[in-house]
Amino acid sequence: MVSVAIIGASGMIGRTLAQTLIARGRLDELFLSDIRSSDIGGDGVHWVTGDAADPETIGLLVGFEPDVIFHVAATAMGQADSDFAIGYHINFDTVRTTVEAIRIAGNNYCPRLVHASSIGVYGAPFPALIDEAARPRPDSSYGTQKLMSEAIIADYARMGFLDGICLRLPTIAVRPGQATHGNSGFFSNIIREPLEGRRALLPASDDVRHWLASPETAVAQLIHAANIDGRIAPEARALVMPGISLTVEVLLSALAERGGEDLLSLIDRSQPPIYGPQDFPACFSAKTARKMGFPLLEEKAVDFIDGFLRHRFKA
Amino acid sequence: MVSVAIIGASGMIGRTLAQTLIARGRLDELFLSDIRSSDIGGDGVHWVTGDAADPETIGLLVGFEPDVIFHVAATAMGQADSDFAIGYHINFDTVRTTVEAIRIAGNNYCPRLVHASSIGVYGAPFPALIDEAARPRPDSSYGTQKLMSEAIIADYARMGFLDGICLRLPTIAVRPGQATHGNSGFFSNIIREPLEGRRALLPASDDVRHWLASPETAVAQLIHAANIDGRIAPEARALVMPGISLTVEVLLSALAERGGEDLLSLIDRSQPPIYGPQDFPACFSAKTARKMGFPLLEEKAVDFIDGFLRHRFKA
Fold first, then answer.
1. What is the pTM of this model?
2. Which residue among the candidates B88, B109, B122, B142 is catalytic per the annotation?
3. Chain A nearest CA to B137, separation (Å)
4. I need a labelling partner for B235 at 20 to 30 A (CA). Which of A256, A300, B200, B278 fits?
5. What chain B residue is nearest to A99 in terms of C-alpha separation?
6. Do the beta carbons of residue B81 and residue B143 sit within 8 Å?
7. pLDDT, tens digit, for every residue of A245-254?
8. What was the ipTM of the complex prediction?
């Protein structure tokens, strides 16, 4: 009997994660939780809807004692910084409520908790290569909330209440759905929008380099974390995930290669770039995660374009 | 008109801080807050009693818009780790309630917030010298709570809601009052108890080396932080404070030097030591804090004995 819970199951990552787990078909029970349920369902799939910062909602979910709990509820960096209180509520309070619900469940219940953290825990100034000795110093509320979540999960793990692991996910591209503004959303916009025939604002210079992975890679990494044998080692409780270091220029070349040069005319450069190379972390060593076998499904820039097209035509 | 608030004013540090500020006589208003008021009072001294994690209590305090708020409410490492929920409540929730009360006060109110953090944010394994590039990785709930508090204060400061600074205070010796058990309490016990004619359990080997400062030094450092001109630089928002690196052996020699060799017979070595040198951080560079002029009132081990005796006879 294997049971899994996903907190944030209606979000971008949570939805793909749920679909992937159902498609694999190795689960007896899948508990999905979010403010609103989605169309995902089937045998052994149960929804617990409500605010994940509410102890009653999460207490109910944790009461089923799933073997693995994925916490992928989050609001993106843009909203966390503009909608200050909501950012703390979604990105931190839901984590704290989850770990506390697990603790008070008692009964020797000690699930694997897999948390979607972010490379956003690192702040400027960024060295060219960020290795594992680097000290996370967030320069955003989003990154702060993720760092606080990592800290409280590590403490609850040290106390033996849960077996936690936090994946510092790369920036996800191509995010499905609408274009998002602010921060790293443009890495998705400049691929998705032209491929859909729409214009995309490019607020960065072409030499901006960043650490990217697809939604499918993020989901594969989360599932890998759930399947690690034995207890997570203390030094592996927060890990930068493998990604690819790509410039805007290389991404746009890949877009032209797959979609034709014409698509580049949909890139809107009418406003002077507000982001330069110093504004994003360019590259991470991700040494421990590689050693632990965390997957990365992309090898080069065109894979991001192909991945988006594959899912667009599937959807 | 200068006004100051102390959250945790009935605690070990808060009490001495309040007395010191009153004795200096440069304040117009002093707002003291704790669960229970103490005998400290006088012209311009106001008590706001209540739980510092309660938004109403702290909202009332912050409503007076003090220029400086000292947050020195804490429970020691021993209790934070044994009384799990209380540790988070006192060491983290009170900080979050404070920063949030300041934020929602709005009105361009942006006080200097001086928070008593701790070298407990660093966890084992400890290098011989901990410099400022070292990454804090707590190995206690207490240290986790302090690190989370530092993170949220830095974020609220970055957003311009407050001007925060967190002092990673050395272990305080000699703590007044009763002997405390667990963790670093013995550094105080082995001085205080023999000087009071009582036996003191020594749970550590003689070669254990640790980073110490007196309560008077901690208070002087907090006051120094309140008086720094201009806004605190982002890289100075969490600073290890100057202290002295001393071994148990050297402390006991100093005790014998001041109180006589006989006192050493009150050191109880009947149980095998549970702490060795690897269990405590031995020495910090504290470079930035030294450069910024943070004071240290002790020069050698006997100063800790003399400081205790001076205050015992004063009290």
1. 0.95
2. B142
3. 9
4. B278
5. B85
6. no
7. 999 999 999 9
8. 0.94
